[in-house]
């Protein structure tokens, strides 16, 4: 029997899992993918596809202090965020974020897309992610092994 001071076996396995990540940015989420288009183009396609799936979307605003040129460069270098929400098949509410940022690897440039869940069922969130990457507009641009 485990005592109260002994750590769980799951905590130890998570530490080992996090040490095996080879990327520069560790994301424990399973709802992510790489795309061949740039962030601004990819975000437009993602937003249209999510709206076709009856998901409400709102693009995150850029801070008001930035000027027009700074807005362009901050979007080009930074992360573009999209707030999403709606109801799943069981009429349960879900909310979260879709983040798209630029990446380059061995001369190939594109987008790194990450879906983060705030509220709702994780299984339904995963189903939404799968429906997004299988949508006709997004599927041709998803990079696979």
CATH architecture name: 2-Layer Sandwich
Number of domains: 1
Give the overall average pLDDT: 79
- Assign the CATH topology: TATA-Binding Protein
In spatial order, strands of the major sheet run 1-5-4-3-2
Assign the CATH class. Alpha Beta
Structural account:
The chain is of the alpha+beta class. It contains 4 helices and 5 strands, in the order H-E-H-E-H-E-E-E-H. Strands 1-5-4-3-2 form a 5-stranded antiparallel β-sheet. The termini are far apart.
Question: Gist?
Answer:
The chain has 145 residues and is an alpha+beta fold.
What's the helix and strand layout?
Layout: H1 9-19, E1 32-35, H2 39-52, E2 56-59, H3 68-77, E3 79-87, E4 93-105, E5 108-119, H4 122-133
List keywords for this structure.
5 strands; TATA-Binding Protein; alpha+beta; 145 residues
């Amino acid at each position: 029997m485990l005592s109260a001071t002994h750590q769980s076996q799951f905590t130890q396995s998570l530490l080992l899992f996090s040490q095996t990540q080879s990327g520069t940015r560790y994301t424990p989420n399973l709802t992510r993918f790489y795309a061949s288009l740039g962030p601004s183009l990819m975000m437009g396609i993602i937003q249209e596809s999510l709206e076709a799936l009856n998901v409400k979307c709102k693009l995150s605003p850029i801070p008001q202090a930035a000027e027009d040129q700074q807005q362009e460069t901050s979007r080009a270098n930074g992360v573009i965020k999209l707030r999403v929400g709606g109801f799943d098949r069981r009429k349960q509410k879900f909310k979260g974020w879709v983040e798209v940022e630029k990446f380059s690897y061995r001369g190939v440039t594109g987008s790194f897309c990450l879906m983060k869940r705030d509220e709702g069922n994780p299984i339904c969130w995963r189903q939404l992610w799968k429906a997004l990457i299988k949508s006709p507009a997004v599927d041709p641009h998803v990079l696979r092994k």
